[in-house]
Amino acid sequence: MREVNGGYSKNSKNPGSGLVLPYLLYLDDEDRQRFLDGLSRVCDRFGWILWAYCLMDNHYHLLVETEQPTLSRGMREVNGGYSQRFNRRHGRVGHVLQGRYKAILVDKDAYLIELQRYIVLNPVRAGLCGSAGDWRWSSYAAVMGQAESLPGLAADRLLSLFGTERTAARTAFARFVAEGVGHVFEPEVQAQCFLGGENFVANVMGMAEPVSAEVPRRQRLAPSLPQIEADAAHRDEAIRRAYATGAYTLSEIGAHFGLHYATISRIARQASGG
Q: Residue 252 in contact with residue 245, Cβ under 8 Å?
């Protein structure tokens, strides 16, 4: 089973509390580059797919996909290795990153591209820059060809969700990210560690039986995509209805309507006012 994990780590004593202390995780760009170098080595060693990252002043965000349960070991290497390099370089001792990182297991099909946007817009929301393209230390710059791509960064796979031609796909991705400025993304995290629906959570936990009675029934009773399209007043309404059934993935809906995954996600999210 492949796991997609979105999370963050802060240089605070309680990463889960939302407390951000007023000292810096990176003192300069060399620190940031050393952190990314260490992250690259971990991605290579454990075979991680790196979907997104963003280095802030006193914390960072990652979105990684793992084929094996290596997240804990890998994150220990990311944080521990960086702490050692930071202390050697600056003549310090002690922990740079204190406490355990926070990880959230993500339903890839439902949230992958929305989390991409959320992560790379962190500097904009924090008032550190005017647009995602102004921040060098995120995956946005690499995806857009403005910075060297890290080994393991799934830039091509991400762009393929926005188009088959690279330039056009980058334009579409940039537009999608820009549309997220001012957009409030408040995903419902279940049990403090899952971002996805009931069926996703149950499958991950290996306990699909308790919820299988309703979910398969709902899927069996869901109208076909052609029927949903015929009954809807317009295309976008049909897309929202199809998504709301819970019976179809974004990819399946996109294939039926001849639209890219990213477009389907944007239209579907409008159903909840996002």
A: no
Place of tokens 């959570």: 201
Count Cβ atoms within 10 A of the Cβ of residue 58 and give its class: 0-12 exposed, 13-18 middle, 19 or more buried.
middle
d(CA 137, CA 120): 9
Q: Which amino acid is at 200?
A: F
Does some domain include residue 202?
Answer: no
pTM for this entry: 0.69
Q: What is the dihedral of CA 117, 247, 188, 257, to 10 degrees?
A: 20
Q: How far apart are the first and last CA of the chain?
A: 30
Number of structural domains found in the chain: 2
Q: What is the CATH number of the domain that holds 119?
A: 3.30.70.1290
Domain hosting residue 69, numbered range = 3-178
Q: Please say if the pLDDT value at position 2 is more than 80.
A: no
The count of other CB atoms within 10 Å of the CB of residue 217 is 10
Alpha carbons 49 and 63: distance in angstroms, whole number: 9
Higher pLDDT, 147 or 1: 147
Exposed / middle / buried, residue 190 (Cβ in 10 Å: 0-12, 13-18, 19+):
middle
CA distances from 241 to 17, 145, 187, 250 (A): 37, 37, 20, 12
